[in-house]
Amino acid sequence: MTVTENPEWRIANKDLEYTKVIVRLGSDIIDYSIESDHDVSLASMDMEMLYRALRDSNLAGKSFCLLWNMKHVTGMSLVYKKELAQLLYNPTVTPAAVVVYNVRPEFAMTVETITAMIPDTMTAIIAGNREDAISKAVEWRKTAPVENGSDNEYLRRKKEFLACLGRISWLNMTNQHIEMPHPDEQLYPFFKAVESLQEDIRENMTAREGEIEKIAADLEKQLTEKNILLNAQKELYRKLKDQFEKEKSALQTRISTQEMELTRISTAIAEKTSSLKELLDIIGSLDIDTGQKNVLMENCRNMIETEMIEKRLNIELTTTDSEFLSRLQKKHPNLNQRELRICLLIKLNYSTQEIARSVGISTRGMESIRYRMHKKIDLSKHQSLKSYLTDLAVATANQGSRY
Predict the structure, then answer these.
(1) What is the pTM of this model?
(2) Is residue 34 within 8 Å of 73, Cβ to Cβ?
(3) Topology of 318-403 in CATH?
(4) Which end of the chain is more exposed for a tag (fewer CB within 10 A), N or C?
(5) What superfamily would CATH give domain 3-173?
(6) Rounded Cα distance, 249 and 387, in Å
(7) Mean per-residue pLDDT for 193-208?
């Protein structure tokens, strides 16, 4: 008999250290075996390799005999069993006969279950060694298909029992009809147990499906709630963004207005300072009483210095100063605009005399205002206004750096 091999009919399982091999004997006998130097438990069947061998052998959709060598097989995964069951009930590749050989005693019951599940249209044979298997395959090819049934009632019942268990376990068939023996028969309790097992599994599956549906409904509800929350947050974000843009636009308009006002004030101060300097030069050139001249010149110098302080104040007003004034006003809303201005000048380390000239009051009057502000802010007797404002400025700067 011609033996045909093909490198593509070999697949190695490196993890479990075995190789699945297919060879063709003659024209229509496919020999499927495991090459290994140790016992193995089969993980998956690799159906594609079998399909390829059938296509290459021009046996796709045709009748063929499958030899199955179990020499090193001591176990089989549930995945493998399910793939095998699907092969047996796949009308496009179902072999006309299956001959299993070299079966280990510890694996015999699994093999019997497999052969019990084989449809009546197929022939199932359990052979001894490879020569015996080939002999039975050749005999099958020459004669009509062998009946899978048995005249022995016990063997027939055993086959049906194993087939029921295989269909439940490997194909999840929990609604199959079970041919029950008569209640007086010895095997009746075993079939009754299988029937009860099938009902219990079906009930558990129904309960599990209900649990899954409930979980799915709960997840759908949570997803809906999350989407609602997300949409609400997006809407809130949109409103906050719109509000921010409006406030930003208003602040930009305010800044532009203040910059224009600052430019106007700076120009006016520069013009006034220039006029005062000219006046100072004129007074210096007058032929008048020296004492009176000195008084007039000192007054001019004071006015020039006051204008310069005012100019520096307008120029030096930074973002930090604005934040300081804003926080001070929120913290002490009872302070008026002049008092807020004085607080800023104190924070900027201007002297009492300089502040007095800037505000347009005497030094003594400035001291009285500082005393009233000390009480307005509610400072302790030993806490200075300068140290309080400095601490507030530092706290404002630290808070701003965190954003």
Answers:
(1) 0.51
(2) yes
(3) Rossmann fold (3.40.50)
(4) C
(5) STAS domain (3.30.750.24)
(6) 36
(7) 90
